[in-house]
């Protein structure tokens, strides 16, 4: 015989996971204002190891529509650009030799 309390608990758990996932995905939607969390899922090839972007660079929003990424090592500019392009977030990064901007 099925335990209804267990089924209800499992259903609640699955629903909460779905809601949490939706909230995470919605936080990445780019609607008007630049939000650094849009880059949270991006991993960069850091000397052969896939590393989260926020561990190899600082991400700031200098104005309402711009994200600025400053790598801690200049050699990381190209891998960061590549990772953003591969992530297909809907924008093209531009670098000026020191920063990667969108």
Describe it.
The protein is an alpha+beta fold and 102 residues long. It folds into two domains: 1-30; 33-101, 2-Layer Sandwich (Gyrase A, domain 2), CATH 3.30.1360. The chain is built from two helices and six strands. The protein has helices spanning 4-27, 77-87, and strands at residues 43-46, 49-52, 57-63, 66-71, 94-95, 100-101. It has a four-stranded antiparallel beta sheet with strand order 3-4-6-5. A hairpin with a 2-residue loop joins strand 3 (57-63) and strand 4 (66-71). The longest helix has 24 residues, at 4-27. The model has no long low-confidence stretch (mean pLDDT 86).
CATH topology of the largest domain: Gyrase A, domain 2
Counted by DSSP, the helix tally is 2
| Oligomer description | single chain
DSSP, total strands:
6
Would you identify the CATH architecture of the largest domain? Answer: 2-Layer Sandwich
* Helix content estimate: 25-40%
C-alpha termini separation: 58 Å
Class from helix and strand fractions: alpha+beta
Q: What is the radius of gyration? A: 18 Å
In N-to-C order, the SSE pattern is HEEEEHEE
Total domains: 2
Shape category: elongated
- β-strand percent reads 15-25%
Low-confidence stretches: none
Strand order, largest beta sheet: 3-4-6-5
Largest sheet: 4 strands, antiparallel
**Which CATH class of the largest domain applies here?**
Alpha Beta
Mean pLDDT: 86
């Amino acid at each position: 015989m099925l335990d209804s309390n267990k089924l209800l608990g499992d259903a609640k758990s699955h629903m909460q996971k779905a809601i949490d996932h939706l909230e995470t995905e919605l936080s990445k939607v780019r609607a008007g204002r630049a939000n650094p969390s849009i880059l949270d899922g991006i991993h960069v090839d850091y000397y052969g190891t896939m590393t989260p972007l926020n561990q190899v660079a600082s991400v700031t929003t200098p104005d309402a529509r711009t994200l600025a990424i400053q790598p801690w090592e200049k050699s990381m500019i190209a891998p960061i650009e590549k990772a953003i392009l591969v992530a297909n977030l809907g924008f093209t990064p531009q670098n000026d030799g020191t920063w990667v901007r969108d």
